[in-house]
Amino acid sequence: MRELAARTQAVNNLKVIGLAMHNYHDMHKRLPPAAICDPAGRPLLSWRVALLPFIDVAENKLYGEFRLDEAWDSPHNLKLLERMPFAYQTPHRADVATERHTTFFQVLVGPGTAFEPGLIAQFSASFPNGTSSTILVVEAGNAVPWTKPEDVVYDPGQPLPPLGGIFTGDSPFRLFGSNRWKGMHVALADASVRSIDVEKISEQTLRRAIVRNDGQPLGGDW
Question: Please, which pLDDT band fits residue 55 given cuts at 50, 70 and 90?
Fold first, then answer.
């Protein structure tokens, strides 16, 4: 039951993030970039900061306190790190020294992904494979500071990056207890959330779900 509560929290938070992505798109006519950058293109802050006004009113106030022209670890912005919204919180394992202000919720950055560098992604023009078949946000293999512009790098020519760092099946959670299920949850581009059994899904199917425009159907193990 405690593990089920942990999974329910992860699913609900991913739903909030997915809907916030769509709310951002409704206003800006595009998905947020993976990072807020300075004029020279240097990443300063994460998309998780850009999404704050679209989560709820309280987080909009937090957004207004950020200096968007400064890096995530500037003296001013670093003070806001401890105020991580509940939507980015994830169950942390007892065997990993993760801080309270870190999150496993990350996007995939790389060729063909929803956050491909240089892409101005739009629903649904940028998703020819279908928004219900393309991953938008994942539970990454490692947690990062939530304001830091750091995400999962995907390279189609390299091994899959570490994913599914929350529900590993072999270590208890600090607050929830048991952790027997081995898998991960992902938010799809249509704002739905899917549970993936990492021991049953093929690498080919997972790669096809990551890429938005390869024209390939998902496998029967999806």
Answer: very high
Structure tokens at 116: 């491909």
Contact 30, 204 (CB under 8 A): no
Alpha carbon distance 173, 115 (integer Å): 30
Q: What is the DSSP string of 127-148?
A: -TT-GGGSEEEEEEEEEEETTS
Alpha-carbon separation of residue 109 from 65, 75, 114, 219 (angstroms): 27, 27, 7, 22
Residue 214: predicted pLDDT: 95
Rounded Cα distance between 84 and 94, Å, is 20
DSSP helix, strand, coil percent of the chain (3-state; round to 5): 25, 20, 50
Per residue in 126-161, pLDDT (tens digit) is 999 999 999 999 999 999 999 999 999 999 999 999
Question: Model's pTM, two decimal places?
Answer: 0.93
Dihedral, 179, 96, 55, 206 alpha carbons, nearest 10 = -60
Interatomic CA distance for residues 6 and 167, integer angstroms: 9
DSSP letter for each residue of 175-208: TTB----EEEEEEETTS-EEEEETTTS-HHHHHH
Cα-Cα-Cα-Cα dihedral sign, residues 181, 186, 192, 197:
negative
